[in-house]
Specification:
The structure is a homodimer. The first copy, chain A, is elongated. Chain A has 14 helices and eleven strands. In chain A, the strands form two sheets. Chain A has a six-stranded parallel β-sheet with strand order 2-1-3-4-5-10, with helices on both faces. Chain A has a five-stranded mixed β-sheet with strand order 6-7-8-9-11, with helices on both faces. Chain A has three domains: about 15-65, lambda repressor-like DNA-binding domains (434 Repressor (Amino-terminal Domain)); about 70-170 and about 320-350, Response regulator (Rossmann fold, 3-Layer(aba) Sandwich); about 170-320, Rossmann fold (3-Layer(aba) Sandwich). By secondary structure, chain A is α/β, with parallel strands linked by helices. Helices cover about 45% and strands about 15% of the residues of chain A. The interface between A and B is large, with 40 and 40 residues.
């Protein structure tokens, strides 16, 4: 029978620790099945847990099946070098702490993400890191399902509305604003935004654009807001014709940049939110017989080895990809080791790497 | 009691099918737990299996735990766009047939590969696709362990000596020979090979080089052999100074190409076996104040969007990455569906994409 604790709610790890007369960390390690705990202390913790009625799912799971020392990671696109870098950070950190990492890629498809979460629950991973495609509170049931089974979840790269979870991101809005400010400082006022949230047609107003963006990924919204912030600060009016409309593909990007280059008051600079938008933009320049930075200036996400060997080399935003993954794994492993989830947003710094793709408008 | 079949060895699916009076495919589907089989036929197959003592692990597994409809994939480096493309091919094909795919990356570390194979066995995947880092018959115990547990394995990208498994690859030797022949046809005779098998110092002889290569990955060996084939056919003597020595990193590659550019009889062309070797070579050219194709010609593995937006665009070898993955998944799913492993090597065609990085020596 559980002892009367004189309060409501299930007993916590701290209460078990106090009852056993051990430190909280020792209780957490014992109950979580992680790390070394001597047999005598272990016995005391388990006796205290039983006395208090501590029966967390984690305990039941570790007792019935053993912990698996496996983390599950769900990424939006394994083919994006950004996620490859994040995965390496997760892998390096979790390997150092004795955990293997299994990865599922959803290719930005929410149905696939739901299936992936179910696979990870079924495979009994100890914890999950997700770069989620969910943009709405009605789209997070699969993440809640994992948490309900006492599988801790940490978000990476993207905040998800309505989920109060530990989250590791960069400040996308600030990174975008800095890039666009750099273009403005060089003298540009006709600055294309490539690519934006997928829209069937050009937004009539700035409000329409933001409403559309709100139905898209958090990181995409934030980059758009950073672009608008920089325009606002410089009192440059927003022009809907300078935002890419349509599918987010490299091929379509090339067409949209060609359209912006053909405007009577054409773009003189382009801000690219993805590496594929950079290559799409470069293709459009070549077709139009234009070169950078003479005819057009260019800054983009994410830096990579090719951007630095281009002639001229490209000014790019570098995300701390390895650190994003390492931090997400660290937070998750701490929770698995007994730390309480802190529901914090961890914001890492990106960096604008100045090379030679920005010049004054011709 | 098993019926006397008048022969040694465990009963096969074909024998169960004959006993049940059904087609082999029906017996395979029933015993493998895949695809639709009507209840009456299913009953007959199971009765025949019991009569003959058919107790394959797969049957035991599917009966006790159910199939999991999960494929496991072990890749050498999730950060290499080549593997990202292969994974997409695997994922598209397996999703279409109702299977999820979980991925582990070994970062070319054989110990990690062994751990990854154990994770996949532990997670009860139905089948495994591996791009293995194993180069020696003493390094394949983990792959045999999966097969012994009746988890079929298909190899992708790399053949592994001593493993007689279905394998999906390109003809690396032929692809390399074609690239080097293209450089020779343009008039080059001083052609660098970047990067080769990792060697501490330059090989004294061609035989030393091949012996060293034989202790490395099959695909690396094959690309080296293709380079040597092309030299032989053109009666160009092998020069050990034109082979990259040392760590296979982009940074070290830059140093090695700088060394080859500083030789009294310097390189006039470079053949790169990896995309990172291409960016490393381009960095060395920039430092030396040289440009391609005027001062030096260049062909590399693997084509990507950046190579085509360079100025001038690069002549590159394109591997059928999606098809490699799709074929590997198809072969594996066919085995899971009841087909017998055919122990075949499936060779897909790569393609040399001619752009503008090759010219006559200056």
């Amino acid at each position: 029978m559980p002892a009367d604790r004189g309060q409501s709610g299930p007993p916590t790890i701290s209460e078990v620790a106090a009852e056993a007369g051990v430190g909280r960390a020792t209780a957490a390690r014992t109950l979580g099945g992680y790390g070394y705990v001597g047999p005598e202390l272990r016995e005391r913790v388990l006796a205290a847990a039983e006395k208090l009625g501590y029966r967390a799912n984690a305990l039941a799971r570790s007792m019935s099946t053993g912990v698996t020392h496996t983390l599950g990671v769900i990424v939006a696109d394994i083919g994006n070098p950004f996620f490859a870098g994040v995965l390496r950070g997760i892998s390096d950190t979790s390997r150092a702490r004795g955990f293997d990492t299994i990865v599922l890629s959803t290719y930005e498809d929410l149905d696939e993400e739901v299936a992936a979460a179910n696979v990870l629950i079924d495979k009994r991973v100890d914890g999950v890191i997700i770069a989620s495609a969910a943009v709405d509170r009605r789209e997070v049931a699969h993440i809640r399902a994992a948490i309900d089974r006492d599988i801790p979840v940490v978000l990476v790269d993207r905040m998800v509305p309505s989920l109060d979870l530990d989250t590791v991101v960069i400040d996308n809005r600030d990174a975008a604003r800095e890039a666009v400010e750099t273009l403005i400082a060089a003298g540009h006022r006709r600055i294309g935004f490539v690519w934006g949230p997928p829209m069937a047609e050009a937004p009539a107003t700035r409000r329409d654009l933001l409403a559309e963006a709100a139905r898209n990924l958090w990181s995409d919204q934030e980059r758009l807001r950073g672009y608008l912030d920089a325009l606002d600060d410089a009192r440059i009016p927003f022009d809907p014709e300078l935002v890419m409309v349509g599918d987010k593909t490299e091929e379509h990007c090339t067409q949209e940049v060609a359209r912006m280059l053909a405007l009577p008051d054409r773009v003189t600079a382009v801000f690219c939110t993805e590496a594929e938008a950079v290559t799409g933009t470069l293709r459009a320049l070549r077709t139009a017989g234009l070169s950078y930075p003479r005819d057009i200036s260019l800054i983009g996400f994410d830096d990579n080895p090719w951007a630095s060997v281009m002639d001229p080399p490209l000014t790019m935003i570098e995300q701390p990809v390895h650190d994003l993954g390492a931090k997400a794994a660290e937070v998750l492993l701490d929770i698995l080791g007994g730390a309480d989830p802190r529901h914090e947003t961890h914001v890492l710094r990106s960096r604008l790497i100045t090379r030679a793709s920005v010049a004054a408008p011709s």
